[in-house]
Specification:
Blueprint: E1 20-23, E2 26-32, E3 39-47, E4 51-55, H1 62-73, E5 80-85, H2 91-94, H3 97-104, E6 108-110, H4 112-123, H5 127-140, H6 144-153, H7 156-159, E7 169-170, E8 176-179, E9 182-188, E10 197-201, E11 206-210, H8 232-243, E12 251-254, E13 260-261, H9 263-283, H10 291-298, H11 305-324, E14 328-332, E15 338-342
Parallel strand pairs: 4-5, 5-6, 6-7, 11-12
Antiparallel strand pairs: 1-2, 2-3, 3-4, 8-9, 9-10, 10-11, 12-13, 14-15
Helix pairs in contact: 5-6, 8-9, 9-11, 10-11
Length: 343
């Protein structure tokens, strides 16, 4: 993806345990992640003379807790946190939400479906969960060794969460939050997670985009074992169309990468990227192909187990989008594996 028309007003992120002011009353925090995508951006918004609204929590581990303690005792000292907003349920965004809410004495604010899905996955520890995971990946064409890996890993979401709060304050598309006298409107994303919350302030010309629009990569748009027939790519493309209505000079604060201006060309790049992926997906279905066979056309590099799970979800998302359009047909073979072919 070219990323040719983006303006990055900040050349480098703040160091761990430090903050950087990116606009009046908005501080940038960066937390490490133990993945190939090795960081997440969090945001602290002044909320009145002494208040503070936090956006996203970081991963639920001891390293992130220790960095929050440094921030609260240092750069954020003297401000009274009033709420924590989670853009969506993924572990790097909601993983430390319970601990942070309890530590600060605040409520979690999130969209209902994000909180419900995160709370459900965090509590899930049943044999039925693992059996469903294994059955799902068997239909995609995983071999015995890969399926044993799925079985042994179980519910990886739980291992990256400290606590998902037992209660929350719900927000929906179109709701506005008064933060420090400025109005932040919730714009619902889609495709990457059930009810992703982007936050837009017209007065400041700023969009906190979460994972919905990123400057360097396309967020994962995937089909997962809990909804094996879902078609999330349409939701993602629709959300991009909504966000493209924002002013061209909007400053975008993403969850990964550097803040940027150039929202419209970036959305155009994302749309073009998925159009190209759909063409490649369709070409892979000239002859009946399993999801893993299609995946090898879309992802040519070597993938570890973590990356393979995301890649299969992305592959299914593109296949199901083509099914919705009537361009691809799915058959269940006698071996219990799905195969996709051009209609």
């Amino acid at each position: 993806m070219s990323r040719s028309n983006l303006d990055h007003p900040f050349a480098a992120p703040p160091d761990a345990g430090h903050v950087m002011v990116v606009a009046p009353g908005i501080r940038w925090i960066r937390m490490p992640l133990p993945f190939a995508l090795d960081h997440i951006n969090l945001w602290a918004l002044d909320d009145g003379e002494e208040g503070l609204t936090l956006v996203d929590s970081g991963l639920g581990n001891d390293e992130t807790k220790a960095l929050w303690e440094i921030l609260l005792a240092g750069p954020l000292a003297g401000r009274r946190p009033s709420r924590l907003i989670a853009t969506h349920f993924h572990p790097d965004h909601m993983g430390l939400s319970g601990w942070l809410c309890q530590r600060l004495g605040v409520e979690l604010t999130a969209s209902l479906r994000e909180w419900l899905f995160g709370r459900m996955l965090w509590l899930e520890d049943s044999e039925e969960f693992t059996a469903n995971q294994v059955g799902y990946y068997r239909r995609l064409g995983f071999d015995a060794e890969q399926l044993e890996g799925v079985r042994s890993r179980g519910n990886t979401y739980r291992s990256r969460i400290d606590v998902i709060p037992v209660r929350m304050v719900g927000i929906r598309h179109g709701d506005t939050l008064d933060i420090g006298g400025l109005q932040w409107r919730m714009i619902e994303g889609g495709g990457h997670s059930p009810e992703h919350a982007c936050l837009y302030c017209a007065e400041s010309g700023i969009l906190i985009s979460g994972d919905q629009v990123l400057p360097r990569i396309s967020p994962i748009v995937g089909v997962w074992p809990q909804q094996p027939d879902a078609e999330p790519l349409s939701l993602f493309l629709d959300a991009l169309t909504r966000l493209r209505d924002l002013p061209a000079d909007t400053l975008v604060l993403p969850s990964h990468g550097l803040p940027f201006r150039g929202l419209h060309p970036r959305i155009d790049e994302l749309l073009a990227h998925h159009a190209e992926r759909l063409e490649r997906t369709l070409s892979a279905c000239v002859e009946p192909a399993t999801p893993l066979q299609v995946l090898r056309v879309l992802f040519t590099r070597v993938l570890d187990a973590h990356q393979l799970g995301f890649a299969t979800g992305e592959t299914l998302a593109h296949l199901h989008h083509l099914m919705k359009k009537g361009a691809v047909i799915r058959d269940l073979g006698s071996d219990g594996v799905w195969r996709y072919r051009r209609s």
